[in-house]
Design a protein that fits this description.
- The complex is a heterotrimer of chains A (160), B (292) and C (775).
- Chain A is α+β, with helices and mostly antiparallel strands and 160 residues long.
- Chain A has 2 domains: 74 residues, Beta-grasp domain (Ubiquitin-like (UB roll), Roll); 62 residues, DNA polymerase, domain 1, CATH 1.10.150.
- Chain A has 5 helices and 5 strands.
- Chain C folds into 3 domains: 163 residues, 2-Layer Sandwich (Aldehyde Oxidoreductase, domain 4), CATH 3.30.365; 171 residues, Aldehyde Oxidoreductase, domain 3 (Alpha-Beta Complex), CATH 3.90.1170; 321 residues, Aldehyde Oxidoreductase, domain 4 (2-Layer Sandwich).
- In chain C, the strands form 8 sheets. In chain C, strands 11, 12, 13, 18, 19, 20, 30 and 34 form an 8-stranded mixed beta sheet that branches.
- The longest helix of chain C has 28 residues.
- Chains in contact: A-B, A-C, B-C.
Chain lengths: 160, 292, 775
Amino acid sequence: MTVSFTLNGRARSFSGDPRASLLEVLRDTYRLTGAKEVCGEGFCGACMVRIDGHPATACLVPMGTLEGSDLRTIEGIGTEEELNPVQQAFVDFDVVQCGMCFPGMVMTLTHFMKDNPQPTREDVKSALTGNICRCTGYERIIDAVMSLSGAAQPVTEAQP
Amino acid sequence: MTQTDVVFHRPETIAAALSILSSAAPRPAIPLAGGTWIMRAALRGEDTDKTFVSLANIASLHSIENTGGGLTIGAMVSHTALAQALGADPAHAGLRMACAASANPAIRHRATIGGNLCSDGFMAPDLVPALMALGAMVTLQAPSGERRLPIADFLRGRGARPAAELLTHVHLPPPRGTAAHARALLRQAGEYPVAVVSVLAGCRDDATCQSLRIALSAVEPAPRRWEALENALLDRPLDPEAARDAAQARIQDLQPRDGVDASGWYRARLLPQLVQRAFADLTRPTAKGAPQ
Amino acid sequence: MKNAHDPSLAVMDLPRRDARDKLRGRTRYTVDQAGPEVLHAVLLRATVASARITRLDVTPALTMEGVHAIATHGDAPGLHGIGIADHPIFASDIVRYHGEPLAVIAAETLAQARRAADAVIVEYEAMPPVLTLQAALAPDARLVHPGWEGYEVLHPGATRGGNIAWEARVDRGDTDAAFARDDVTIVEGTYDVGRQNHLSFEPRAVIASYEDGRFHIQTSTQAPWTVKHVVARVLEVPESAVRVIVPAVGGGFGLKFDCSLEPYAAILARKSGRTVSLVNSRREEMMTCLCRENAEIHIRSAIDAEGEIVAREASVLMDCGAYGGEQVFLTTMTAHTLAGNYRLGAAKIVTRAVYTNTPPNGAFRACNGVYNTFALERHTDEICKAIGMDPITFRRRNVIGDGDIGATGQTFQGDVLAPMLDRMIDKYPVERRSGRLPDGRLYGRATTVGTWFIFVGPSAATVNLNADGSATLVTAGVEIGSGTMMQSLPQIVAANLGIHPDAVIVKTADTDAAGRDLGVGGGRTTVSIGAASEAACAEVREKLLTVAARLLQTNTAALVLTNGRVEIDGKPGSGMTLKSVIAEAELTTGPIAGSGAFTAPGTTAMPGCATGHFIDAIDIPVFAVHDCEVAVDEISGRCEILSYRVVQDVGRALNRRAIHRQIQGGVVQGIGYALTEEVTIGPDGAVGQTGLESYRVPLAGDVLPIDFELYEGAPSLGPLGTKGAGEVPILNVAASLACAIANATGKQVTSLPMTPERIATLIAGEARYSVPPLT
């Protein structure tokens, strides 16, 4: 069985075990290692990707369900020249530490800000319920996101 | 991996899915809905070499239809989709909350109502008690035919279901009354609750309780109704403090479980407070003012 | 050289150079490095806590599809440890903990390696495990290490025996006489704490190869030189045969301060001739984490009529698990964390690391300081209650100050804690410490003090000045997330050479290139590696200015380095660019480089006070004052933190934003430790929390912005007057929350973590146990 899908804008087909998780395949087959395997049970959000525009924990998605899907990973967000606004806010607020959770944070929050351009802090915290960070204690991340609230430019993204 | 075709199927009809599930094969076949339970089988130490029968391509399992004033919900409807589809009817407030507050946003987007009902061994579901409170029924389809039964009956037989049977739809009766759903967590959000109380109450003009269903989750190994408490509170006005005290007086009816997350003692300690919170939600002016 | 050590020349609040790639998923941690050419290894681990191995047969696995190599005890018989060499990397004949490695297997895929591990035949003869401190210290306790007397002692002087792996003592003054006085109030308390899992997002992971007769180990570690040493020791090869390199590390918090998976991958690399990757699964990380240890603390104090502490006795039992590990060293810390906050007339302290049949513990941010501070500050509040003195007044008059003598007899310099307390209380005057909120919940507030230290020790640095005027800093420092290697070190080098930090290249750790270093931990990187870097810069400056002085026909004393130029002091534009000086140097004396070193200055203690200690005194103390307000629900026991405030001694703040990050993150990690993170060990000796479903770290909804003040100006040996700022924020979080919860509930909080259930039990009191069992 072959599964065909779009990955960061490129057509791909996968013919390995369709029960394998998307996370395993991204990391091992395509060597896209931005999505991290941390808990493997959907609690931490470190493997967050977008499937057909919606955030999903790649560890819980079997490849066989992805026929015709449009997949975007952290490697498909922002360019060397231009980060997306969430990424740029994280740079500007100097919030990055070990960095393992940040690809997932960016995926979750980019989607969230698109739908909620003027969130409250509580809204942002709710949106982050499935994204754990062990280094930062979150509040600086939320400060950075809140700086985008009501921004003149909606949160759209540069894509490679 | 050789012969990959045989380990993953994407049937487009229920009949085709049942046919795969019932065919003799080298390895057991299991239906795959949102995947959030099955994909963690390895972490539970279960055998993972099973044939996946994905239900994603069966259109009828994704629909939510108005049927005679009630709702028929396809098994593949996600928590998020269901939360969005439920209107502002106070009878659906508990289910809406259960859909919108469980787990975390990404999981709610994938986890399905059918999967929640069929995950035998998952002790802390939110949807199940909310559906029990609503008096929901489920439709099960097998090659031999179709049957419809109340959720509680379904749960009772859940551990020994035939392999070739699909839970295809959940039926909600026409909304009547006001519902509430109270969950006890150890943190603010993002975890399985240590106790859940889901209530649906219908009141007479004199504000006494005419109908009442109270369902619990996470307290015992499987969700259950708390009939003794229902009986104690029927025909009385909805009163959060009285409900709390009645729950406290009947706590011995239950057999709360000890788990890694909490002891049975602690679950029992929380329940009266949860009942009180649920009843306080039922009696909030916004809910009371809404049509019944 | 006027501008050496001049903090005003430092570029402050430097952004992180690693942020963009980390945000774009480009950064390759060790777990991301294994490409298709690499073999995957898994450990076969014991499924019992205590047993004699009667049969271990790997032959069925050797011939399985994809298997390249298997190693067992015979491949690495050496013992390692800290203080005592008691730890084999594989169980030989005895299993001492659930999860102990028995064999390691390398195969072409992870699935093949797992299948092969399942095929290994293991037979045990079970022995009853010793699972608790009480069981281990019972008179008839079974010995976890029956052969303890035969182990090599690496650091002499401590008492050992039976299940006591190590004992450290402090005896200063006559405590017996003080307790016998009839004018003192005696206050006594016993406290117990559970384990804490670091939950670093990157698990322990390693990739090893064997090339040209040497082991090349790429690993997720905080201490490359420790890895080099331990791998050589257990494989019985020269240290020079081991090279350790470290890419970005995805979180450490102390977990990676010890050697862990590296020797297994090294053995398999040599056996298979291939590059081998070994990564712990999350389940393995949870079940064999080198946790912050569980401990029991007993404190007894004698207080005179003026509220002075005339004597203190304490005993601390630290569970080291099946092997001594870091706990042996950490017994030293009690002297300072339990007896370094307050002035004591006399002190008698005994700290024991105790063997049990449980997974070994390790180092974790502010190590034994967090629970000793918890116990001490709860005890301090009990003292205040007993003598009827206001807790701030008591602390204000008893905290360690200038000229005071510490537990081991060292003399502290500067009044630091008292003015920090004043700053906290001036900013947030105390209106009440307990009460009831309008919503019915119980209100509590508490203020606590804490003493921690910078763990100095040896570091080496080399600075190469490049032809373009940039500099390359070569050290064995590791970036674990704190930003030290990205911010502080380039800031320090830049300030010393008069260039912008962006012109400082920081080499990632490679033991083939950099000199010996103790590792990233104990808040030491900025201080120790920073000081070594300053020393290297001094040599560079000397060489640079000698050449420049000749060219500018002046003497070196008249020259300053600024803006990438050498200038005659006070005459901007009078000098020349660094590039031109470097070019001249290449023609005359050769390229310019400098090397520098640093080690603990060895602050003196009172002779005879301390036995079994690894360090007798602390070189750089660090102080903290925390304050918080809580609301406690009486039924559920849930504790909401209403406010949290920190006054932290930082010496000098080089990067305020980076310190803010550490305070916010450290306090939140402390909140998890205090309230929700629980590790339990079942009757089978296995950890009950096997993943993130049951191990509850704080999520975004559980935290609050931490209010903080940086206290500058306390004495420090650190470069530019700095102290490490990363460890100490976690130090008194559990203490503050426990004291506030005790104030709110009126109950004696004596255990951590204070989970909702534990608080509810405290409030319920006897009621929990007097109701008939629910059957």
